[in-house]
Design brief:
The chain is mainly α and 136 residues long. The protein has nine helices and no strands.
Length: 136
């Protein structure tokens, strides 16, 4: 039985294909150095699951509900199994007052980028590549 690819595997394939196509379309523009693709396979809210305690506190629910979701998927970047169970839909089902745009930024700030990077390896790889631009 063949297993389904992880979100990170899918993201990687899409990023490679995107870079290849843009390089093909613009061969004289040094694309490999100017374009660093990042595909978030699901949605921004997946990153907010990096800290169950802060996320639960910020949206006013029991931490166990967030940890149950994490237990099911293993890591934040893998959370999603359909349009009705995307990370933001899960949060809205746990607390009807959750608002993507209004609350996402403040929750991300409360969690902190270092925790998000620690728990979300694909996001961390992209940020690391961006940071390395400053080293050159």
């Amino acid at each position: 039985m063949q297993s389904c690819p992880t979100a990170m595997e899918k993201e990687g394939k899409i990023e490679i294909a995107t870079l290849a196509k843009i390089t093909e379309l613009f061969p004289d523009h040094n694309i490999e150095e100017r374009f660093i693709p990042y595909i978030e396979m699901h949605e921004f809210e997946a990153l907010l699951f990096s800290n169950a305690l802060i996320l639960a506190s910020e949206i006013g629910i029991d931490t166990d509900k967030i940890e149950d979701i994490l237990d099911e998927f293993g890591e934040p970047e893998e959370i999603d199994d359909g349009p009705d169970t995307a990370p933001s839909k899960r949060l809205m089902s746990l607390n009807k007052s959750y608002r993507k745009v209004a609350m996402g930024k403040s929750i991300a700030e409360a969690i902190g980028i270092s925790t998000i990077r620690e728990k979300c390896p694909h996001f961390d790889q992209w940020v690391t590549r961006l940071e390395q631009l400053g080293d050159n």
